[in-house]
Specification:
The complex is a heterodimer of chains A (108) and B (119). By secondary structure, chain A is mainly β. Chain A contains no helices and 9 strands. In chain A, 0% of the residues lie in helices and 44% in strands. In chain A, the strands form 2 sheets. In chain A, strands 1, 3, 4, 7, 8 and 9 form a 6-stranded mixed sheet that branches. Chain A has a 3-stranded antiparallel sheet with strand order 2-6-5, with no helix packed on it. Chain A is globular. Chain B has 119 residues and is mainly beta. Chain B has no helices and 10 strands. Chain B has strands at 3-6, 10-12, 18-25, 32-39, 45-52, 57-60, 69-73, 78-83, 92-100, 113-117. The chains are: A mainly beta (108), B mainly beta (119).
C-alpha cells in the first residue's frame, strides 16, 4: 500500500484531456511544493515530466501540467496522443521519499 | 549530458550475493545524490535508499534497511547496490536515479537492471 494514492487507471480519447490525482499526507503534499511526476512506458525507465508541482523540464511538452490543492496534487494531460499511453507516478520528497502506486493511462 | 548507465541483467540463486552498478557521466559525481528504486514485476516504484557520493553518507527506507547496502566509488563515478543473501522476493528491476543537491526530483534515471532470483 503506497503512502500516496493514485487511481489505478484512467482513459481518454485522442485530443481529450485527463487528470490524474495524487493524494497523500498533509505533511508531505500540502506543506511543501515538492511533488514530481514521472512517465514510464512499458519496458522503459521512468522519465521526469513535472517537478515542484508545476514546473516542466526542458523538452517536456506543455500539454503536461501540474497543480496542487491541499493534500492532493494533480497531473493534467491535454490534447491526448497515443504516445501518452503509459504509467504515471507521483512522488514527494519532504524528508522522506514517497511514490504513488501508479496510474495506467489508456488512450482509446 | 548527465547520464547513468547500469550493469546488465543478473540471474542468481537464493542465498547468493550480488552487486549491481550505476556509472555516472556528464557531471561532477559528488554533486548529485544517487538513489535506488525497486520495481517488482508488474508493480510500482519503491524508494530503497540513497547515497551522497561526496561523503558516502547513506540513508535507507525502513523497508530495505539491513537487507541491501548502497555504496559509491568516486574514483570511477560509480554507485553500487548489493545484497549479501538474495531471496526470491528480490526479483525485480532496480533503477538508479540522480538528484542534484538542493533539489527534490529524480533526473535522469538509469536504464534499469533486471535481477532474477530463482532456484
Amino acid at each position: 500500500q503506497s503512502a500516496l494514492t493514485q487511481p489505478a487507471s484512467v482513459s481518454g480519447s485522442p485530443g481529450q484531456s485527463i487528470t490524474i490525482s495524487c493524494t497523500g499526507p498533509s505533511s508531505d503534499v500540502e506543506s511543501y511544493n515538492l511533488v514530481s511526476w514521472y512517465q514510464q512506458h512499458p519496458g522503459k525507465a521512468p522519465k521526469l515530466i513535472i517537478y515542484e508541482v508545476t514546473k516542466r523540464p526542458s523538452g517536456i511538452s506543455n500539454r503536461f501540467s501540474g497543480s496542487k490543492s491541499a493534500n492532493t496534487a494533480s497531473l493534467t494531460i491535454s490534447g491526448l496522443q497515443a504516445a501518452d499511453e503509459a504509467d504515471y507516478y507521483c512522488c514527494t520528497y519532504a524528508g522522506r521519499v514517497l511514490f504513488g502506486g501508479g496510474t495506467k493511462l489508456t488512450v482509446l | 549530458e548527465v547520464q547513468l548507465v547500469q550493469s546488465g541483467a543478473e540471474v542468481k540463486k537464493p542465498g547468493e550475493s550480488l552487486r549491481i552498478s550505476c556509472k555516472a557521466s556528464g557531471y561532477t559525481f559528488a554533486t548529485y545524490f544517487i538513489h535506488w528504486v525497486r520495481q517488482m514485476p508488474g508493480k510500482g516504484l519503491e524508494w530503497m535508499g540513497r547515497i551522497d557520493p561526496s561523503d558516502s553518507y547513506t540513508n535507507y527506507s525502513p523497508s530495505f534497511q539491513g537487507h541491501v547496502t548502497i555504496s559509491a566509488d568516486s574514483s570511477t563515478s560509480t554507485a553500487y547496490l548489493q545484497w549479501s543473501s538474495l531471496k526470491a522476493s528480490d526479483t525485480a528491476i532496480y533503477y538508479c536515479t540522480s538528484m542534484q543537491q538542493m533539489t527534490n526530483w529524480f533526473d535522469p534515471w538509469g536504464q534499469g537492471t533486471l535481477v532474477t532470483v530463482s532456484s
